Amino acid sequence: MRPLPSPPVPVATAALARAVFPVGCLAMRLRDELGVVFTNADFTGAYPRQGGPALSPVTLALVSVLQYAERLTDRQAVHAAPHLIMHVVTTTAPTDDAAQTLRVEHDLISAGRGPAEHLVDAGYMGAELIVEAAHLGIDLVGPVPIVGGRQEREGRGYGLGDFTIDFDAHTATCPQGKTSTRWIDTIIDGHPRIHVDFYNAGCPACPAKPDCTKARYRGLTLHPREQHEALQQRRREQDTDTWRKRYATRAGVEGTIAQAVHACDARRSRYKGLPKVRLEHILLATAINLIRLDAWWTGTPLGPTRTSHYARLELAA
Ligand code: SF4
Question: Are 251 and 310 in a shared domain?
Fold first, then answer.
């Protein structure tokens, strides 16, 4: 674990808390009277030396303690706060979604609100982004796109994951035990990549060749080491129920988009020009936050997940 100091409570968060609890509450008095109760360094021994970024141990410890004080279940503890929009980015339509991931993260960090976890859809994911986000201390979570050759797309034959890659020795070993013969650093579409192939490794005579390649010999395209390892790990993780349960939280983001569309008519802009549309988006996000705060103050439960007409037909059958 790399114990970073606990960030101070952002000024806006403190102001919001004072507005919501004018006479204070247990958690606020705890902070006011006792100050910092835990530090991340207290938990160093409980965490492995290596691993991806995770929720701050201090935050986890405080939520775990306070949930008993407030008689909340684990799930209620996570959802005890209102879900608010923290940042707005407005771009022109043809802008690449993936280019916004790090921009949003940098903006949030600059504002002192860097998240420990960032849940995104596939359009905002990529090997480079996972690694860059991890360097910022953010766990970028989303489905990694299935890229690669025919084998990955069709889900049969020898895919990249079936090869053993040795980045130190600059070799790959195929499922038939043959070692690659060429390892070439290259650039594809402006991104560093590694070309590995099994030229002269005996592919034409290989009994498994139909499962491996239609070409004379097999070739692989790899990301640089750190990205490759992150990508392979994510591909393994996203095939598990644990990951699916974790990612299910992102339904709340889709709910936010649906609320913006249905409650605030966000599909259409009232104005022309990026600066005005950006202002409109900020006003719209603020309006949604007010709606959500009101729902929270009045104890209005979150809306249920919508079941599509098609799914309803399926359930009825
Ligand atoms: S075709 Fe070549 S790379 Fe593929 S399994 Fe056979 S020997 Fe290995």
Answer: yes
Pick the residue with more confidence: 83 or 201? 201
Residue with tokens 């008095």: 29
Mean pLDDT of all residues in 274-281: 92
| Domains identified in the chain, total number | 3
Whose CA is closest to atom 7 on ligand 1?
203
Integer Cα distance of 161 and 232 in angstroms = 7
- Cα of 205 to ligand 1 centre, how many Å? 9
CA–centroid distance, residue 181 to ligand 1 (Å): 12
pLDDT for the residue 22 = 76
Give the domain range for residue 183: 150-224
Distance (angstroms) between ligand 1 centre and the Cα of 238 equals 28
Residues 158, 136 share a domain? no
Specify if 4 maps to a domain.
no
Ligand 1 center to 174 CA (angstroms): 6
User: Mind listing the pLDDT tens digit for each residue in 50-83?
Assistant: 666 566 777 777 776 766 666 666 666 665 667 8
211 lines ligand 1 (CB under 6 A): no
- The reply to whether 159 falls in a domain is yes
Residues 248 and 215 grouped into a single domain: no
pLDDT in tens, 106-115: 999 998 888 9
Residues 255 and 280 in one domain: yes
In a domain, 300, yes or no: yes
Q: Examine residue 209 and state whether it is found in any structural domain, yes or no.
A: yes
Alpha carbons 260 and 283: distance in angstroms, whole number: 11
Q: Is 180 left (phi over 0), alpha (psi -120 to 50) or beta?
A: beta
Whether pLDDT at 131 is above 70: yes
Q: Is the CB of 198 under 6 A from ligand 1?
A: yes
Residues 165 and 299 in one domain: no
